[in-house]
Amino acid sequence: MENNIAEGKTTATIAYITLIGLIVAFVQNGEKKNKFAGYHIRQSLGLMCTGFALAFVNIIPFLGWIISIVGVIGLMVLWFMGLMNAINGKEQPIPLLGDLYAKWFANL
Question: What's this model's pTM, rounded to 2 decimal places?
Fold first, then answer.
């Protein structure tokens, strides 16, 4: 298990760095499947989808703006927690939504 984490740590960390990093990590993990990297790719993909959903909520005047501002701040905190988990070699779900992301993207 330790070797699996060590091999996938770089790919897992790259997954949290912008959309391009997520795509690069997805391609890298497609060649040589790593469970640890795959877990963090799913977490990062979930955060990315949540960010896109918040962008659409921003269209609604006033209430949507407030939800978007609070959501973006929360999303940044969750993103940082996921990134730190990847760097530290922890396979721990992101609070609140991490278990759902793992379930929704289980086939990736």
Answer: 0.86
